[in-house]
Recover the amino acids of this structure.
């Protein structure tokens, strides 16, 4: 297989695999809940936890954790496959971006989707481990203190951007932070409704 066809398969795999709405499927299968029409309407772990908790708190924690894990690794799987094929850095970063695009604009949900936090942090953990671990630590600390998922995610995202510039003034293999900014802008865009609610002091807490 030539490199062009190999890359096309990797890009399609990244987009389509990351588009699988695990939160929606898990909540529907195990809790009988359509999370697209409950809570915030988001398919991510936070909404799974919030909505299913009304019926079964113990199940909510399990499904929320499973959603977080599956959303995080679905982009990582294709990255690891590409690394085994010795794909160049430019291809790996394209896969990372397409994984976030696939989750946020899923072909299986009429190009709607989640907010991209778990998938974004998952692929960035592979591509930039140290900045991502710093960002995850900041995110966890903010989550514990603020108990507002959206704001904690945005704070963690900001921490990742700052850490990436400090640790990698030039991104290895591509010399640019452009893919990181694209991922960040997608996540920021998907959080605009949350930002509006934060400004209006209407954003709910995760308790």
């Amino acid at each position: 297989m030539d490199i062009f066809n190999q890359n096309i398969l990797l890009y399609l795999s990244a987009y389509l695999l990351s588009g699988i709405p695990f939160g929606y499927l898990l909540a529907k299968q195990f809790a009988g809940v359509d999370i697209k029409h409950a809570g915030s309407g988001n398919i991510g772990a936070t909404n799974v936890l919030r909505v299913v908790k009304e019926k079964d708190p113990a199940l909510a924690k399990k499904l929320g954790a499973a959603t977080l894990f599956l959303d995080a690794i679905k982009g990582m799987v294709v990255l690891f496959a590409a690394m085994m094929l010795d794909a160049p850095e430019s291809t790996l970063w394209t896969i990372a971006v397409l994984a976030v695009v696939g989750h946020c604009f899923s072909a299986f949900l009429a190009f709607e989707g989640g907010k991209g936090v778990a998938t974004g942090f998952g692929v960035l953990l592979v591509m930039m481990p140290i900045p991502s671990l710093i960002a995850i630590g900041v995110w966890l600390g903010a989550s514990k203190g603020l108990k507002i998922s959206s704001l904690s995610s945005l704070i963690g995202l900001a921490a990742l951007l700052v850490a990436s510039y400090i640790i990698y003034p030039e991104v290895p293999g591509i010399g640019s932070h452009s893919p990181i900014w694209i991922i960040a802008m997608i996540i920021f865009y998907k959080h605009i409704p949350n930002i509006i609610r934060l400004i209006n002091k209407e954003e709910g807490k995760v308790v």
Observations:
- The radius of gyration is 17 Å.
- Residues 3-199 form one domain.
- The mean pLDDT is 93.
- The chain has one domain: 3-199.
